[in-house]
Each structure stands twice: as structure tokens, then as C-alpha cells.
Amino acid sequence: MKKQLLLFFAFFMFCLTGYSQYKIENIGISYGEEITEEKGKIIKIIGEANNKIYALGLKGKKEYFLKIFSSKEMKLLSNKPIVLPELDDKEIGFEEITILNDRIYVIGSVYKRKEKIFNLVGIEFSEDGVLSNKMVTMFESQVAKSSDRGGFYFKQSPDENKLLVMHTALFEKEDAMKYEIKLFDDSLNVNFATENKVSYDDSKKDYQFTISDFDVNFKNDVFLIVNEGYRDSKKKEKIEKFELHIFKNENKYKKEVVNIDVKDKEIINCKMLSTNKNTLQIVGFYSSVRENGKANKELKGVYNATINLATNVNDNLKFNEFDYETKVKLLGERRAKKGKDVKPLYEIHSIIEKNDGGLIVLSEYRMVIVGQTQGFGPLGFTPITYITNEMIVTCLKPDGSLDWSNVVAKDQSAAVTVLSLGFFGTGGNGNFNVSAGVSIPLTVMGKGPEYLSGIPIYKDGQLNIIFNDNKKNKGITDIEEIKSLGNYNNSVPTLFVFDNKGIITRKDPEEAIKNELVMRPGIFYRKNEKEFLIYASRKSEDKLGRMILN
Prior knowledge:
There is one protein chain. The chain has a 6-stranded mixed β-sheet with strand order 20-19-18-17-32-31, with no helix packed on it. A 5-stranded antiparallel β-sheet has the order 1-2-39-38-37, with no helix packed on it. The longest helix is centred in the N-terminal third of the chain and has 17 residues, at 2-18. Helix content is 5%, strand content 55%. By secondary structure, the chain is mainly beta. The two termini are 38 Å apart. Strand 13 (151-156) and strand 14 (163-171) form a beta hairpin. It has 3 helices and 39 strands.
């Protein structure tokens, strides 16, 4: 009997320490065993397949690892280094890792300076940590010069069985931006490929040319949107042109173009969402324009255009100004009464398709402050501060008009020091850029910025947003009263729940648990609309977790 009690006690302690659980309102979080293998902090959760969870680890600047966990216990099974081979005596630089139909691929790039060719290659990676001998050349992109070689951008299909890759590069002497898009299957065979040079005319006033976004839908149709804006000084008008390039699977990927023209408004940014209703939703911020045609460069509100993919017709184009209550929260009552507009410091965090066909657009205040580099050459260190403050939540009706809006009050920042500045997910220069992959670089994840921002969960018509906050903000939703996050290692999770009119109810833990793990909202994998794989830590203790909306 005594032996049985001891065994039961040991099992009970294992459950407490090895597989802890946590609950905040209707969201349950369970964690696996502590990750004791110190070779690389997790910087990306790749996915779940074959009863295993796959994650990418990074140690230092360039040492990548494939971490494999059991699905049930979330216990680390293996931690294999990713050592990429050379291509034509040149080192392959890590770009991406992905799972396609349960097959793992590591993707890297090589620039051949003499030939002016930017290569992308894919290599299958086994669970035993062995790279395949078969290297698949995915791109051999001709570019104008090294400084304009551009970059590669990646998106998975909704069923995660195909990979959409885009390469963009500037051809300045030709006044053109080239994009090359390919859709790969789970063997890295090309199902679709296109290459286009889009011309521009930078002699126009206040000219801006942007490859804004690209996507693939559940039918394996491919989309790309280009935004061109300029000022007609003679007519004193601001001209904005959207050019949507559509490549439909059922039409053997023949290129189709939809044009949307806008006057007397400036488009600040643009994102796409392909929906289950066979439409393409285009959303973003816009600015007002003065009588002389010059843009005010501040955010007036949110626009929405819906493309019916059965007819390639724009069914609506709505411009929704921020209402007074929202502007008071963002600017203060005095500035809101004066009719001031919002500073252009907000980026679209995510777009959610509602049950009724409308949209919820989450936009987050984001700023990157780059300090002065200390030291010289390769020994130089640059301090960077990432700031992600309040979120604007905009709910749109199915016709694109405003339903309601509100603000998630938060004040977050994290500082890192890097040896050298990398790309921040953008390409191009001057008035020409690519905003299809704006994100925090993988090389600084695991050092602080991943504790920032939040995770939206939308289920049965209800929006939930969970994020890390200062313990002193318990119960507070007023943006004027919140305190900054401070040390994210001492933060606690909080949940903002929205009703169907946009009213926020804040849900905090009943009691802050001492030494509770801190979630990293910048690193998660969405399995479905109510289940997420997450990563959390406390000082040197790291665990993989599962978050479920009950």
C-alpha cells in the first residue's frame, strides 16, 4: 500500500511539473515537459504531422536546428542541426523551412555575382536529421545587379500541401519591377509559374509603386496586387491605381487583370484575404488629400474592396473614416475634436473572415528604433527597440461598410542588440518597394520581440485577443490609464473578449501565479480556428504548449 501511494505521488508530481495546465476564462493552456536541450531557442513552430510537432531553433546568428516533439506529451524527441551544403562552391543561406503534406523541406538561397543570378533551392530533411542528396533548384532569377537582387517571399496553401513563392527585383534602367511567382507541390514540382515586369513612370509627382501582397486560395488560384500612386499637378488630383493579377487554376493559369481606380485619396497600405466564399478581400488604410492633390500622409480610416472571383468584378469599394470615439482613444479628446488624423504608424496584423461574410481587421501600432552602432566592422553592435502598442479593431459588414471599431489598449517594447542590420522583410528602394512579407527577422526572434503583440482567436462570431501585459493593468481597458509592459519576463497573460457590438470585456487571471510561464505571441502555429500550438518560457525554462478555446 505504501509503495502504491509513493507511485501515485510520483505520478501526481510528474503531472504538475511535466504537463502543467493553465486557464484564463474560456481558454485552456497545457504545457509539455521542460525543454532541456539548449541547442537553439525556438523561433518558429513549423507545424504538426505524423503525431509530431516540428519547430525551428536558432543559436547565435546562423546555427539552425530542427526540433521534433511528441504531439501528446509535447516532449522534445530530437534536436537536429540543419547544415546546408554548398552550391557551386558558394554557401547556401537559410531562407525558410516548411512542411508540405508531411514532408519537411529546408529552403535556401545563393547569389551568383558573376552571372547575376539569384538561386533558390529546396532540400528534403528527414526526421533523422539527414538532408537529402537531391537538391531541387526552385528559382534561377536573373537580376540587374547585386544591390537590386530583391528577395524571396513564401506562403502556404490553405491545405498546407502546396507552397507559393515569389521573387521580386528592381530593374531601374528599364523602369520596371520584376516579379516571378511559382506554386510548388509536396515534391517541389512546379504546378504553376509566371514572370512579369511591371513598368512604372517615376517622373510623376509624389510617385509610389508597391507590390503590396500575394496569395493562394483553396482552389490553388494565385493572386498578386500592385499599387501605383501619383499626383496630377495640372488637375490637382491624387491618382491611385490597384492592379490585381489573377491566375486561376480552372483557366490553366491564364493571366487576368482587374483594375480599381481611386481619386482624391491616398492608399497607405494594402493586404489581401482569399475567402471561402470565392471572393478576394482587399483592405488597408487610406489618407485624405488636400485641394492641390497632395496627400496628408496620415490615416483617415480603413477601406475595403471585394472582388467576386466568379466574374472578376469589384462588387464594392468602401472608405470608412475612423469614428470619433475611436479617434479619442487613439489621439485624445482635444485632438479628436480638432479633426486631427491618426499617425501612419499602424500595420495590418491580421484579417479575419466573419461568419456573416464581413471582416475584422486588426491593425497594430508598430515602430522600430535603430540606435547608433558601437564598434567597427564585424565587431559593431547595433541596438534595436521594437515597439508594438495598441491595436485598432475594425469590424466591417459584408458590404464593406463600418459595423463597429474599438481599441485594444497595450504598451509593449523589447530591445535587442545585433551584430549587423538585416532585411526587415521589405525589398526595393526609394519609391519602389515590396510589402508582401513585412515581419520581424527570424534572426532576432528568441531575443525579446516574440513576447510582443497578441494572438487573435475568432470562433462562433466572437473575437478574443490574448497578449502579455503588466500585472498592474488588471481590469483596465482605458488606453490613458495603462502602464507599459516593462520587463516582459514578469508579464501575465490577459484576454480581451469582444461582443457583437465591439464592447470589450477584459479577463485577467484570478490570481497571478508566481513563476508562471510567459507566452511568446510572436511564435505560434494555428491548427484550426480554436486550437493553437504556442511557445512559452520563464528565464531559462522553456516549454511547448497547446492553447484551446473551449
